[in-house]
Structure formats: structure tokens, C-alpha cells
Design brief:
heterodimer, A: about 350 residues, alpha/beta, Rossmann fold, 6-stranded parallel beta sheet, 11 helices, B: about 325 residues, mainly alpha, ABC transporter involved in vitamin B12 uptake, BtuC, two-stranded antiparallel sheet, 14 helices, about 75% helix, about 0% strand
């Protein structure tokens, strides 16, 4: 009986398909009216939580938003912040669109697989910013540091330390992850040019404990290495493994601009050298200032965009033995999980906007 | 002979239909509550974009839930479903190379990949007789690893005809809605086949099924192959949503599908339930995430609340679930 009902429904559906003509279901511009006066709603989509970087990124955004909320310019900051895959992040973004936000700031889980859903948003007049990881959709504005430049900075330093013919290993984030590929690709180029041999690579998953474990394995397998190149989120673990093996005087370790690492660095003898290049979680807050300015009618200066849609933020001076004491004195009070940060203010972002 | 085999099952079939109804009531009630709550909290869901996008979001989980349901009804479990989705989607992306003319080839490639993965799972479970839980957990790693080899970094373009069609409406009914309905109808056709009756019998009681001349091993094998094929289709649905390939896509789908199956009133011990329930389960789960978002729950509470919702849904659907009579 129920089956019959359903086959009737099936017939009806096929009839619809046969008679109806196709129209695109995306209806442009329902809520966003371009350069309005507000108050606005901004949505945040983040698909990976639990790392100190992402936690600080979200709290930076909330801090930056609170001043606009006090002014009455920002009605609501809607957070979609949960561990998920690309598929789940597509749902996050659709939730934000359906909630009627005026702008979306996303830390995308993929460089290209969110393009379609971002397009759905921009088609409806919603401003979309991608932070931390650039995406390929033209209508999205990428805001962030150049990951390749970030990686090359520490790679060049390491190449100098171990010299030509030096043998190193690399502890990477996640193979196949776009940020990892961009970073390691750039580092590899530096090593090739400098004649530094990378014996092997291992994945530390941007996780201190995994990084430590992987480094322990590498030390046992490759006792002759001169150095190790690693990324932020794992450098503390890697250094701990090297220290545990008592080889911190022979093996050069690239570091990270995070308090936990700086502390361990500080505890070493003066001969110990490292480098920490800042990868600021505050990029999201910078994007929020940009979003608020653009929602209020400002236009981005296209001439400053790289590849048509990417705003590259300048790197901060890296932490080295020269400035370690000064930096540490400044950040020591922020707690062990603090990531060295850099946030452009509402006034700072004016440099990227068209000036009248 | 036909008369002899037809006559005895008659009462049990009636029983079964009645008992399945009871389970369906709980699931249906949950579905109604979820839909009403989601719409009340987020009226924009009723706009054309809201409907189309919501169903487009449902589709991958709905497909994987049906795939999972078939395996679970057959007495197995497939933790590799999400990895099969990832592998099928990246294979399809590589095969199609963004060209409209190759969309059909991509479809075949996605389903073919799913079938191949299902065959591996089916062989390991039915012939080597390994525990499905562990066997598919391990094969998930194999498939994810292969996905990384096929597409080392996210990228590739899905033909515009696929992403475009996915976002169109036919006589104002969004394509995504039609596709979800089509999945349900597809099941209603499938379930009448001999293979699926054998799968159900195998899951219900393998020894009794064996004694009744049901090819138990073949049925188990078939359940994984069929499930793999449907997961392959889910890979395409994922591509329709994403517009590009990503070897890490679909990681949440395997456990999500198991939850959807149970919320949908399908007993994990096999033999009982219908993928229609699993479709409802998938929609309930997807909507619950929208509801949690809409009530403005602080994000740090969201994961906890999502877990509580799943447990509540499981408890409610278990209340209505039929007890198997021996």
C-alpha cells in the first residue's frame, strides 16, 4: 500500500521533471545591500578546533568584534566552530548563509573544495574572506601571510646553520594538506639550492606529542643528522625529543614562535640556536577589521592583491637568539600556550582600501 | 516447492511489517520535531536557496546512510564508507579533468571505485571471516591512503555540468530535493530484489538463513559491494557540493552514517529495519547540527550537545524498536 503511494509520488516527480523547465535556485542578493549603514552580522567558519593556534584565532576575532559591537555597528558575531571535514564545513557555511550574515570569515579546510559554497555566498552579496589558507575562488578575498615565504625563512636559516652537504630530516604537518604542501615545497627549494640533503620526512600532524614521537623515531633511524626542519605546532615536541636524546648541541632544530618553545629555548645553554617565524593567529581579526570597513562602503585596493584575490600580510621579524630575550620578556606573561601574534588594527587595514 | 517456501514466512512478514512500523513511528516523530524546530529557528530554510542548500547538504550523508543500512541489515558494519566516498570522489575528479563530456565517465569511475572497495571489504569479511568492525576500520586506512596517492593535494575541477545541475531546480523543485527523493525510490525498487531479501535473511539469523539455502557468504559479499557502489555515488554528491577534489573529504561520514542508521531504527545486530529509516536518520542528524547552530549555543558546548542529541535520538528510536522474536 505504502509502496503504491510512493510509486505515485515517483510518477508525479517524473512528470515534474518532464514538464518543468530548469532554473537556477540561487537567488541573488536577499539580505546584503552592499554599502549600508549596519548594524551588520558577521559569520565565522572554522573546521578545526583544539589547537592553540585556532583557539587564539577565534578569541582574537571575538576581541576585535567586541569594539564594533559596543559601537552598535556589529549586531552579531555568529560562530561555526567545530571539528569537521570539508563536507561539514560546507554545511557550516550554508548555515551562515541561511542565518543571513553580511560577511563570512572562514579558515577553510581545503584550498579548492569550498569554492562552490563560497560562490553560493558571494552570489547572494555576502563578502567572504579566507584566512590562514588561501582558496582559489575568485570572489573570495584571501587574507594571510605567504606560507611559502614563512617556510623559506626558517629553511634558509637552517641551511646556513648546517651548511652545504648537511643532512637533515623534516617533520611536516599533514601530507596533502595545502598549507603543508606550500610550506614544504618552498623549504625543499631552499634546501636543493643550498645543497642540503633531506634524508626523509615524517608527518607530525601539527601536534606536539606526535611531533615528539616522530622525532624520537627519526633520531633512532638516522643518527647522523645535522638538523631538523619542522613547522609550528610541532617544534616544541621535536626539540623535546632532541633534548631527551641529549643531542641538542649537535642537531640544529628550527623552532616556532610560541611561548612553550621559547621557554625551552630560554632554558638551553647560550650555544643553542634556533629560529621562530611568527604565523599570526590574529589574521582573522585583521580580516574582521577589513570586513567591517568594506561593509561600511570601503573598497579594497585591487592593485594590492596578488593573484587577483589575495592580500599578503608582511611577516614579522622572526625570533632568533639576537632578540629572544627581548621577545620572551614581552610574551612570558601570556601563558604557555600563547602564539606570538600580529593583528592589524582598523586604522592599519586602511592601507589596503581605496583612498578617496 | 514454491508453494512450500511461500507459505511459512507469511505470518513473520506480517509481524515484521508491523514491528518495523513501530520503529518508524519513533523515527518519524523525531524527523517531524527536527524539521519543525529547524524551520521555527531558521525561517530562511524555506527560501529557495535554503531548501536547495539544505537538501544538497543532506545528500552525501543520506547516500552513505543507505549504503551503511544495507551492510548493517546484512549483519555487518562498514567503517570504511567515508574513505570509500573520498577515494571515489578523487578518482572521479581525476578522470573527469573538469570536462563536461567526461561527466558520465566520472560517474562510472566513482561507482566502479566504490564497487571495487566494496568487493575488497566483502571478500575480507565473508571469505576470510574477519570481524567487520576491525576489517573495515583497516580497509578505511587503505582507501584513504589510496585517495592521497590518486590526488596528493586538494584540487582538480568538477565539470560545470555536474556542479551546475546540482544547483538547478526543475519546476521550482530543487535538484537536490529530487535526488534525495530518488534515493528513497531507488531503495523501494532495490528492496524487492532477491539479493536484498537474502541480505536481510543473512543479517537476521545467518544459521537459519544457511539452513534455508540462502547463500550466506555471497549475500554478505553482495551487501558490501552494493554499499560500496552507493558510497561511490555519495562521492559524486560530495563533488557536486564541493566543485573540486579533496582527499580528506568525507572523514565524518562513516560514523555519521552509523548514527543515522541507528537513529533510523535499524538494529546494529542485523536483519531489522529499512534504509528509508536511515534516510530519515541522516536528515535528523544533519538538521540537529543546524538547530544547535540556530539556537546560538556557544561553540564550546556544541560538540557536547551534538553527542547528547545523538544519544537522545538513539534512546527514543530504541524505545520504539521491535524486539526480535526467537
Amino acid at each position: 500500500m505504502r509502496t503504491r503511494l510512493l510509486s505515485v509520488a515517483a510518477l508525479a516527480a517524473t512528470a515534474l521533471v518532464a514538464t518543468g523547465c530548469s532554473t537556477v535556485s540561487n537567488e541573488p542578493a536577499a539580505s546584503g545591500d552592499g554599502d549600508g549603514a549596519g548594524p551588520f552580522t558577521i559569520g565565522i567558519s572554522n573546521g578545526f578546533v583544539g589547537s592553540e593556534y585556532r583557539t587564539q584565532m577565534i578569541s582574537d576575532i571575538e576581541d576585535a568584534a567586541s569594539s564594533y559591537q559596543d559601537e552598535g555597528l556589529l549586531e552579531d558575531l555568529v560562530l561555526e566552530n567545530a571539528d569537521t571535514d570539508v563536507n561539514g564545513q560546507i554545511q557550516q557555511v550554508r548555515n551562515l548563509i541561511n542565518a543571513g550574515v553580511d560577511a563570512i570569515i572562514a579558515d577553510p579546510n581545503s584550498g579548492s573544495a569550498l569554492d562552490q559554497v563560497f560562490q553560493e555566498a558571494t552570489d547572494q552579496g555576502i563578502l567572504v574572506f579566507a584566512i590562514d589558507q588561501a582558496v582559489t575562488a575568485d570572489s573570495v578575498i584571501n587574507v594571510g601571510i605567504d606560507q611559502a615565504e614563512w617556510a623559506a625563512t626558517s629553511a634558509e636559516w637552517l641551511a646556513e646553520q648546517v651548511g652545504e652537504g648537511g643532512q637533515i630530516v623534516a617533520v611536516n604537518g599533514i601530507s596533502g594538506h595545502p598549507a603543508n604542501e606550500a610550506r614544504y615545497g618552498a623549504a625543499q627549494e631552499v634546501f636543493d639550492e643550498a645543497g642540503v640533503e633531506v634524508l626523509t620526512t615524517a608527518d607530525g600532524g601539527w601536534d606536539q606529542a606526535t611531533g615528539q614521537q616522530q622525532m624520537g623515531n627519526l633520531l633512532a633511524t638516522y643518527p647522523e643528522i645535522d638538523g631538523v626542519w619542522t613547522q609550528d605546532g610541532m617544534a616544541l615536541g621535536v626539540l623535546q625529543a632532541v633534548v631527551a636524546a641529549g643531542r641538542e648541541d649537535e642537531i640544529v632544530v628550527t623552532g616556532e614562535a610560541r611561548n612553550g618553545f621559547l621557554q625551552l629555548w630560554n632554558e638551553q645553554s647560550d650555544d643553542f640556536e634556533s629560529i621562530g617565524v611568527t604565523n599570526p593567529p590574529g589574521t582573522g581579526a585583521t580580516a574582521l577589521h577589513l570586513a567591517m570597513a568594506m561593509l561600511q562602503g570601503a573598497e579594497i585596493d585591487e592593485s594590492q592583491l596578488v593573484d587577483g584575490n589575495t592580500l599578503v600580510l608582511a611577516l614579522e621579524e622572526p625570533v632568533t637568539n639576537e632578540n629572544l630575550d627581548a621577545v620572551w620578556a614581552e610574551t612570558e606573561g601570556e601563558g604557555e600556550s600563547y602564539v606570538l601574534d600580529s593583528i592589524l588594527s582598523a586604522d592599519d587595514v586602511q592601507q589596503f582600501l581605496v583612498q578617496d | 516447492m514454491t508453494a512450500a517456501t511461500q507459505a511459512p514466512p507469511a505470518p513473520t512478514v506480517v509481524d515484521r511489517v508491523r514491528s518495523v512500523r513501530v520503529a518508524s513511528w519513533a523515527t518519524a516523530a523525531l524527523l517531524v520535531v527536527a524539521v519543525v524546530a529547524a524551520i521555527a529557528l531558521q525561517p530562511n530554510l524555506l527560501t529557495p536557496y535554503g531548501v536547495a542548500s539544505t537538501f544538497a547538504t543532506f545528500l552525501p550523508l543520506v547516500l552513505v546512510a543507505v549504503a551503511q543500512a544495507i551492510v548493517v541489515i546484512g549483519g555487518g558494519l562498514d567503517l570504511s564508507a567515508g574513505a570509500i566516498v573520498a577515494l571515489s570522489s578523487v578518482v572521479a575528479v581525476q578522470v573527469m579533468r573538469g570536462e563536461d563530456g567526461l561527466a558520465a565517465v566520472g560517474l562510472a569511475a566513482a561507482v566502479g571505485t566504490g564497487v571495487a572497495c566494496g568487493m575488497l571489504n566483502g571478500l575480507v569479511v565473508s571469505r576470510l571471516r574477519l570481524q567487520p568492525l576491525i576489517a573495515t576500520f583497516a580497509s578505511a586506512s587503505i582507501f584513504s591512503g589510496l585517495a592521497l596517492l590518486v590526488l596528493p593535494t586538494p584540487g582538480g575541477t568538477v565539470p560545470a555540468i555536474l556542479t551546475g545541475t546540482f544547483r538547478q531546480a526543475i519546476a521550482t523543485v530543487p535538484m537536490s530535493v529530487l535526488l534525495v527523493v530518488a534515493v528513497a525510490l531507488g531503495w523501494l525498487v532495490l528492496r524487492r530484489t532477491r539479493v536484498l531479501r537474502h541480505i536481510r535473511a543473512t543479517g537476521g539469523d545467518p544459521a537459519a538463513a544457511y539452513a534455508s539455502l540462502v547463500p550466506v557468504q555471497t549475500s554478505q559479499f553482495a551487501s558490501y559491494v552494493l554499499s560500496g557502489a552507493i558510497s561511490g555515488l555519495a562521492g559524486l554528491a560530495v563533488l557536486g557540493n564541493a566543485g573540486s577534489g579533496d582527499p580528506f573529504i568525507g572523514g565524518d561520514l562513516a560514523l555519521g552514517s552509523v548514527a543515522a542508521v541507528v537513529v533510523g531504527g535499524i538494529a546494529l545486530r542485523g536483519g531489522i529495519g529499512s534504509p528509508i529509516g536511515a534516510i530519515a536518520g541522516a536528515i535528523i542528524l544533519a538538521l540537529s547540527s543546524t538547530i544547535l547552530f540556530s539556537i546560538g549555543l556557544p561553540t564550546s558546548w556544541r560538540a557536547l550537545a551534538a553527542g547528547v542529541v545523538v544519544i537522545l535520538a538513539l534512546a527514543l528510536s530504541a524505545l520504539g524498536a521491535p524486539r526480535r522474536r526467537r
